[in-house]
Amino acid sequence: MPVFNNSYVAPKFFILNGIPGLERVPVWISLPLCIMYTISLLGNLGLVYLIHQEESLHHPMYFFLAMLSVIDLFTCTTTLPNALCIFWFNLKDINFNAYLVQMFFVHGFTDVEFGVLMLMALDHYVAICYPSRYATILTNPIITKAGLATFLRGVLVIIPFLFLVKHLPFCQRNIISHTYCGHMSVVKLSCASIKINVINGLTVALLIGVFDICCISVSYTMFLQAVVSLSPADAWQKAFSTCTVRKSATIITYVPAFFTFFTLHFGVHTIAPSLHLIVANLYLLLLPPTLNLIVYGIKIKQIRDSVIKLFQGEKDPSIQDK
Question: How far apart are CA 34 and CA 229, in angstroms?
């Protein structure tokens, strides 16, 4: 158990207590998590390798998809092993500084993922509305700068959260009913006013969330207007199918994220705590990395063809000629 020198010193450890009410069935919870994590780990690593190896996939759309896979892998890898230790070995203690580190990765990479989804929507818009200028607009330097800016945005906005939490008094309250290190979960334990923390969290979430959603909505609205003007039926169907794939990935990420965010900040008492935590775990740990892989891997023909080509051992003709 943690030791305190006085009532206002931050605890040396927090205790992540898992999911309330489901303590007696940890195996049934952990096995699906472990299986899905293994699938997403192998699948996303394979997808990144495929995009790196296949020259036919060296296009902005697939570079952004590789970024999304890397982010998903980092997010679930920094949180799921800790959750499995809670379920399997009852290892619930986590060092205060380790809590802050995991919180940094959880919220930072979640913000980066939102940014990458926005970039993918803009890429889709440029590809449909300006096909002749696509290669000149989305050059490799532009993609690199956009990816770096998105990463820095996600990292920089979370740094104030760490400093604010670091200086909160907890008065020997250190038990958290959760499986990973979230911002509001620890802030609510403080015995001081958390108004600044709440305002900071809401401001950042609304600014980033509203900005990204507005960009995505505008890009898809203009995309649909361009699709309507396409004369061949097969071109219209192909473009609309691609739009559906990307919107599915956006919905998979945003809907559970906003559900988790608002229930934590505003305490919706009609929702059972166990349900909220299950949704939070699925949204953060498994839904994006697993379902994004399934959605893109199954629906995008170029990826399917590249996978088949890779397993058949076929080589690019240009490589064979060399």
Answer: 46
> Is this prediction's pTM over 0.85?
no
Listed in sequence order, the residues at least 6 apart from 128 whose beta carbon sits closer than 8 Å to its beta carbon are 223, 226, 227, 239
Which pair of tokens denotes residue 122?
């803009």
Cβ(302)–Cβ(198) under 8 Å? Answer: no
Which H or E element spans position 193? none
Instruction: Please report where in the chains the tokens 């097969």 appear, as a residue.
Output: 234
In the three-class reduction of DSSP (H, G, I as helix; E, B as strand; rest coil), residue 238 is classed as helix
CA 275/CA 20 separation, integer angstroms: 10
Instruction: Check: CB of residue 182 under 8 Å from CB of residue 106.
Output: yes
Tokens of residue 227, six digits = 């699709």
Question: 122-150 in b/e burial notation, b at 16+ Cβ within 10 A?
Answer: bbbbbbbbeeeebeeebeeeebeebbeeb
* Pair 162, 179: CB distance under 8 Å: no
Residues 53, 69: Cα–Cα separation, whole Å: 15
One-letter amino acid at 316 equals: D
Q: What is d(CA 301, CA 185) in angstroms, rounded to the nearest whole number?
A: 42
Contact 283, 79 (CB under 8 A): no
Query: pLDDT 10s per residue in the chain (322 long)?
Result: 444 444 456 678 899 988 776 666 666 777 878 888 888 888 889 889 988 888 888 888 889 889 988 998 888 888 888 888 888 888 889 999 999 999 999 889 888 988 888 888 888 888 877 888 888 989 989 999 999 999 999 889 999 999 999 888 888 778 888 888 888 889 988 988 888 998 888 888 878 877 888 888 787 777 777 766 665 655 566 666 666 666 666 676 676 666 666 666 565 555 666 676 777 777 766 677 777 777 776 667 788 788 788 777 654 444 444 4
Q: Rounded CA gap, 313 and 125, in Å? A: 34
